[in-house]
Amino acid sequence: MAKPIMAKATAVWLVDNTTLSFKQIADFCGLHELEVQGIADGDVAAGVKGFDPVANNQLDEAEIKKAEASPIHKLKLKFNAAAVGEEKRRGPRYTPLSKRQDRPASILWLVKFHPELSDAVVSKLVGTTKPTIQAIRERTHWNIANIQPIDPVALGLCKQSELDAAVQKAAAKKAADGAAMTDDERRKLLSTEQSLGAEDEPRMPAAIAGLETFSLSNTTEEDEDDKSVPDANTFFNLPDASDDDDEN
């Protein structure tokens, strides 16, 4: 349901100039009923000047009278043809001033670890512009030497669920295109939840890789079977019993 502009100021005007119930005003303005009661008590929106919805072409006076006569009647916002499509307008995500200096670091992280994400997706995730993303991709950004890649989720620029959804969508698109992916690229296309739940693959340490079949001798298993098992006397140079008897 569409809400009036300056909803709190509109609620102030309706509380002061009508006999509508708190629930009717709350439903129309998109507020909580207790918040409207706080406005009536003077605890909320102190100093806020009322905004007349009738004079500003948001509500008909006949609609107000109908709602005053019936407590269960819900106010309907007046149709404004000029406002059609306003809610569908899209733009870059708003980023607070305190976090805007962190955007280049998050862009570099996304470009480095998820190069499959398009500039439009990166722009939507962290609320930046395509020229900035392109400058960081091409390493022509004015401060590229001092930028360190940092996860945008850790910086609070986007949610983990949003990042995972973007990565999964990129994975589905790449699979649909039939593009060949390396193991590293495939791991990058996994969401955080999937990668954490996956089992570790057994790997041969790099230091001994290729030595698992290496042997210093050319003997085969058959040759080893033919060899007799040495006894203890072969390891110790013990004198024979006959030699002892000769000495005595």
Automatic annotation (TrEMBL):
Source organism: Aquimixticola soesokkakensis
Region described as Disordered: spans on this chain: 193-248
A Pfam family per the record: TrcR
Domain of life where this protein originates: Bacteria
Protein name: Cytoplasmic protein
